[in-house]
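Example record used in the benchmark description.
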Amino acid sequence: MGEIRHILSASQFDRPFLDRMYRLTNKIRQFDKSKEGLIYLQSLLAHKRAMLYFTQPSTRTFLSFQSACHILGIKNSEIRDTATSSERKGESIEDSLRTFSSYVDLIIMRSPVGGLCDRVAGLLDKTDRPVPIINAGSGPDEHPTQALLDIYTLERSFKNLGGIEGKTICMVGDLKRGRTVRSLSRLLTLYPQARLLFASPQAFKIEDDLRQFLRSSRTEFMETENFKEAISQSDAVYMTRVQDEYDTVAGDSAKVDSSAFCLKAEHLKIMKPTSVIMHPLPRRNELDPAIDNDPRAKYWRQERNGMWTRVALMTKLLGMDEKILLPEL
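Model output (structure tokens):
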């Protein structure tokens, strides 16, 4: 993988990059264990500024990026509603983002508009301030930084079990519109013999472009409506909620019966004792809170991993990763 200018898609990442990010994130967590380490991290990018342009609702992604900025000393500004910007006056999204590039060194974007990050990155690359763009969620298309933290969580969970290679990962729920599923599936093709199971109602099956991608990468996968059988043979179960914010007609998702694809405490007994339960959150009724204290439940740890992997990603993007990997405190 060559030098990266923007983080737009999970397809940008290769296996050496993922392995380096794993080491980098682990090293950052070591720095967090001491006052001296935290002061060092805060000094690395204190001369940089970032814009958090989040015009789609977000809790975890926004807070983890904001916290990552704080850890690295990056000063940040935010737009969380276009009604507070000149877009309310009719300014185009592209002009708004170009305006932000005049004031900051990095733009982190989350938008319901598919493909917007790519368009803005291409636009800024033609200007005299081609600041980096990080895609923090683009419509139903991609969520590459979520996929990075998911891979990190899987690697940590399987570190004494041979890693992700050869494991069966089951993804459950609204797989048609779940951008986290799309991005994570792409990264899992980089791990030899990893097998993917997609458990969903017929209406929420994966899109054909992902199906074709998996076939072209020679990744074994299977689609099923047998939820119990799928989770019983899986090393990791990745639950997702119904993405009804993308309904073309209000209430369409409610017409799909997803009740058979909810993970409940009673299902724990049919799962492997070493399995991992994940969820990008927020959750609804597809993941029973009674599971939270089971040692296989990794979703709250997964959430916190998001902050650390985004710290690592920003140091890589802004050229400070070597200053983390080299020093010994």
